[in-house]
Amino acid sequence: xxxxxxxxxxxxxxxxxxxxxxxxxxxxxxxxxxxxxxxxxxxxxxxxxxxxxxxxxxxxxxxxxxxxxxxxxxxxxxxxxxxxxxxxxxxxxxxxxxxxxxxxxxxxxxxxxxxxxxxxxxxxxxxxxxxxxxxxxxxxxxxxxxxxxxxxxxxxxxxxxxxxxxxxxxxxxxxxxxxxxxxxxxxxxxxxxxxxxxxxxxxxxxxxxxxxxxxxxxxxxxxxxxxxxxxxxxxxxxxxxxxxxxxxxxxxxxxxxxxxxxxxxxxxxxxxxxxxxxxxxxxxxxxxxxxxxxxxxxxxxxxxxxxxxxxxxxxxxxxxxxxxxxxxxxxxxxxxxxxxxxxxxxxxxxxxxxxxxxxxxxxxxxxxxxxx
Length: 372
Ligand SMILES: Cc1ncc(COP(=O)(O)O)c(C=O)c1O
Fold this sequence. Notes:
Blueprint: H1 22-33, H2 42-55, E1 60-63, H3 66-76, E2 84-87, H4 93-101, E3 105-108, H5 120-126, E4 131-137, H6 146-156, E5 160-163, E6 171-172, E7 175-176, E8 183-187, E9 200-204, H7 207-216, H8 243-252, H9 256-273, E10 280-282, E11 289-290, E12 296-300, H10 303-312, H11 338-346, E13 347-350, H12 358-369
Parallel strand pairs: 2-3, 2-4, 4-5, 5-8
Antiparallel strand pairs: 1-9, 6-7, 6-11, 8-9, 10-12, 12-13
């Protein structure tokens, strides 16, 4: 449902950019900008090390975007034209564009209607001898059912790529998202938990993949080697992060735990306070998953009226993503996805981030309890 523009009075936005305080950021940024070394250098290396400590994996590479990191992961997994990658349609388009960039065919697995995450049982049904990777998105910051997904993957010797664009700071089995799978990607785009303006990170379980990933991100060239002695053996890209973005990242990392903690505190508040409201169902997830609540997804009856209530009270909300299987570019992958039909027909995302005060979140609960 859409409303006349004049009625929309968003006072609690669904997304907001977190930028470190000017006093902390600007001196560091100025220093880098005028250092004469603004390309990929020491700041990038320091940023990778510091980010690695946050996600509990020191084998991490930085990229200029999450999409570039994902494309690299798909290539490292060995997916080429003629191969298949099992993925989810309930995500942002870049998840699946990265598979297309590698020329592989997307095979949709269904999603769990209780949270929108890829369903392990459906993955198991879709595996063929051409399957080269499983793409698992932690949608909205809720970790997918990794134990079951990994068991299926290991059983078939297929790597898992986790798209953790929404899930920085989430945990699974008590361990931070970042080291459960062969490849884990984080996005540092403007509105994620943490931004470097744009950027992406990729953890690799295998040291050889890390080395190859480093080549892929810069024209296939080993930057440590003497340039005129290098033989380029693989097709590489210009996917690296630069010192300017890395400097922003280094400062942002001083604040990220506070940001994540507030997302989680708000999410847990909604888990308690929105329970039992007629017409509203909360998402449910794997008991080992500890979400980092990028946004807060609810499943509602009569979504049009629910959205009108929120709009009238200045509460940001959106479905945020179009199920990817509806796009013409992915038409060849079409199949029945009943779990997705159910989730997509009822889901709506609410603000949950660091910018919500205690009063804001209480106001949201009180508004929703009025009914729609
Ligand atoms: C689920 C998901 N995957 C991948 C991406 C791509 O990340 P980036 O914008 O950093 O390329 C995004 C967001 O933009 C996303 O939401």
